[in-house]
Amino acid sequence: MKNIYLILAFTFIYSVHGQGLNLPTDYIRNSAQGNNIKWEKVEGSPYHYDEFKDGRLQINDSVYDARMRYNIYRDEIELKEEGNRIINLLKRDYIKIAIGNENLSIHRYVSVDKLKQGYFLELTNNSVGNSILLLKKLKITLVEASEATSTYKKDTPPRFVRKYDYYLKLSEKPARLIKLNKRSILSVLKDDNKVRLYFSKNKVKNEIDVINFIKFYNSN
Fold this sequence. Notes:
Elements: E1 13-16, E2 21-24, E3 28-29, E4 53-59, E5 62-71, E6 76-80, E7 86-89, E8 95-99, E9 102-111, E10 114-122, E11 132-143, E12 159-170, E13 176-178, H1 182-189, H2 193-201, H3 207-219
Antiparallel strand pairs: 1-2, 3-7, 4-5, 4-8, 5-6, 6-7, 8-9, 9-10, 10-11, 11-12, 12-13
């Protein structure tokens, strides 16, 4: 575990009042990132859930409770303090986040042959050293407004469009994009006898099937 959470005697502590949360300024941005988008004019939402939910941050060996929500569009975690002021959690790959019954963390991943880093929902547990992890990458894109091209059509307002992808992460390697089928999983895990044996006896067609396979893989 990285030991970079070092508090000196003169460190300035930023307090999120009303939450019992004291975070060093290393982990927060004082206000939510500004933007020129008027959200109320856009159909849909940039958030996983619009409302703030009770959550928990684990930073190395310290745990903090907070009200949080996930801004998928900006790939940021927002914290709500007393007075309804919103601050952003800075991205640190050693910070673990739980919002409601969902766990989020930052992972490196390969996207169109480029190495990136971002938040993922963790669908399986990676407590075992050589375990594989099933991750779900939530994505929201902003589709610009468009004018009607004829009198028979209407103008289309700007809107948020949601989608998601699945990734497999093996050990410390960057997560790789997969589809929920045997062929795609084998392309990441290569020729593994126990994988082929499992696939010969079990179906793998949806999220639950893959979660069950990973539980088997990590326990054998």
